[in-house]
Amino acid sequence: MKLDQLISKDSVVCNAAIGSKKRALEFLAELLAKESGSADSFEIFQHLTEREKLGSTCLGHGVAIPHARTSNNDKAVGAFIKLEHGIDFDSPDDRPTDLLFALMVPEHYTDEHLEILSGLASCFSDDGLRANLRAASNSQELYDTLTNWHVASRAS
Fold first, then answer.
1. Is 85 among the residues known to form the active site?
2. Rounded to an integer, what distance in angstroms lies between the CA atom of residue 29 and that of residue 73?
3. Quick check: 57 and 67 in contact, CB under 8 A?
4. For the chain, percent of residues with pLDDT exceeding 90
5. Which of 30, 34, 119, 143 has the most beta carbons within 10 angstroms of its beta carbon?
6. Into how many domains does the chain fold?
């Protein structure tokens, strides 16, 4: 999985000053709407919120992968934010969440949805990647770190 197929430089934000789970989901929905070019941010927010009601998408280690399916998009798109300060995201390890990768896929993506989520979970289970993301000081560094992860991990 190549992350540059899911995100663009415009959908990666460094040091976002967001203080709540709800606001983080709203912000991610706005980024996903811009990235898709066709979906409505409020509708995406609703889908993300509904998914969170089923159970937190937080993986622990300060990482969450909120995701949703929608009928208003024909391809998978993602957005990533690094928060200025961690927030409560119902983490299984009770740690604040500061790295959030949101994913929106078309409704007909079933196997693809699970494959992408599995790839993202693998990506964010990498201690080195998380450390590099937290050390990034701007959005370009975040984007480069994310999009080069697959290439680096493949070589090993």
1. no
2. 13
3. yes
4. 74
5. 143
6. 1
